[in-house]
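ok so I'm stuck.
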Amino acid sequence: MNLIQRPRRLRRTDALRAMVRETRLTPDDFVYPLFVCEGEGVRREITSMPGCFNLSIDELVGEVAAAHGAGVRAVILFGVPDEKDPVGSAAYAEDGITQRAIRAVKREVRDMLVIADNCLCEYTDHGHCGVIEDGDVLNDPSLELLARTAVSQAEAGADIIAPSNMMDGFVAAIRASLDKEGFESIPIMSYAVKYASAFYGPFREAAQSAPQFGDRRGYQMDAANSREAMREAGLDAEQGADILMVKPALPYLDIIRAVRERFDLPVAAYQVSGEYAMIKAAALRGWIDEDRVVMESLTAIKRAGADIILTYFAREVAAHL
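replied:
not stuck anymore, here's the structure
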């Protein structure tokens, strides 16, 4: 006798569904991105990212402490300096906004893991991720500044360096400089597969980092390419990356899965500002259930293979979990 297969038996109740759930989110999965700016008492909401703010260091420390209380164990910091120049000198200044923020967080919220984004675009007056000559981003001269930035971030107390610039050889240059200066124990979380994506728009408002000319397609990846993503990830792994990141996350779940299957390193995925903004905008109009969509999207990212998820929803989701 042929029996009817009845998978619905295990879906009847919350308890049954929870018992057989294959993918589970925990607060340990999340990294909380935060934007730190100059001043005191500054908590300036980012127009295109409701619920996210540019924070002065005093406000940042309070936000980090609250996130830690909710269960978040890691933050990634993006600096928004008042002054910028052609070579992004504020990125590697000993008293730069990010360096001061790292010291403050490590002093006040000691158990929080602090990740330092390593790039120049927030610090250059032209908004590109490297040194410019005749309208071109120069690769090797940019590496020297990125390595210098990594060392200054490590000296300030960063637990992880996260280079996001997509210059050729950036992981090797940063690893060599960190090791030379005695920071061989500091891991590198490489933005190994970073696409030239339109989903970054709100971030560029938050970090005041929009390019003043051209775009970043000459160094960030073409959205149509997947084999190239494996090459980029492989190069970063060979050069000493400890964690490989894919960015953005939700439009590139296939890439997250491919990186997970190809490499044994931990895989991170960044649910970027545009993903956040779309969910917030639709929720504010009553078109979607925000809580359910957030959980569904984050679960999809983890199910695709991400061990670590960078998300602006980290604090609220951690508290919910």
